[in-house]
Automatic annotation (TrEMBL):
Any one GO molecular-function label of the UniProt entry: oxidoreductase activity
Record-given protein name: Thioredoxin domain-containing protein
A Pfam family hit: AhpC-TSA
Sequence intervals crossing the membrane: none
Thioredoxin domain: residues covered: 109-263
Residues forming coiled coils: none
Amino acid sequence: MKRKLLVVMKNKWFLGAVLAIAALGTFGSQEIIYMARQYMAGDVPWSPAPKDLNGRVVFEEHYSMHPGHYTFAEKLGIATKVDVKKMFGKSPAERKKAFAEFSTIRTQSPVGVLAPDFELKTTTGETVRLSDKRGRIAVFMFVAMTCPPARTQVELWKGLYEKYDTNDVEIFFVYSRERHAGERGYPEFKETKTTSDRVAYAKMLSKITAVPIVVDPIDEPTLKDYGMVPNAAFIIDKDGFVVFKSQWADVRKIERAVQQLLFAEEQKKQLKISPS
């Protein structure tokens, strides 16, 4: 009897069932669904090696349907804030629309092209034009109060923002649409209907970060130009060209690319001043 019991206990299906029950008891069905989806997806491999494109330093674009670069704790934190059943319980038409929107990150503003210019207001009313940042590297990501991955990155970008001189690298956030308004982590938030509503939420975000925030109007011209995904990030070089973009912002990839851009700029300067 003891031998049979030992065999059953060593069976992988038995162990899996025990672990599943324990996980369900500790977290909940929504977290289990989300975490399983995230870890099955994982992160898409990305090479930080710079490339030459028509004499310009660029980097491989990074695409992933899920932010697989997060740690277990970060993913679990995200899972506790969204309505997972709502995410995965969409109708075929809703899934088709969502997939079409996500796909725009691959077609809009590809690496190597002149970045679409924009003129947006900050949370304090100043006007910011991307084209005015020529001569400096511009780095930005799309954020919203109700986008858990973006909120995670907001905290991580604090160090990145403080690291660089604004004469060399300008870092800022573009506030766009709410992604999980009214869901488990954000019950007090609602979908924004006007630009002023969006500005109000952006001001709330500005209270928890020193990184400057500009606001995409309610008709979302900037989001449409750069790809309609929740938390994309872009690096624009000193000439105004897109040199890196990521479907999900990852401060580590951003920092590695920026460092190499600055190194390439320094190398150019050294070549110009060195005797022929």
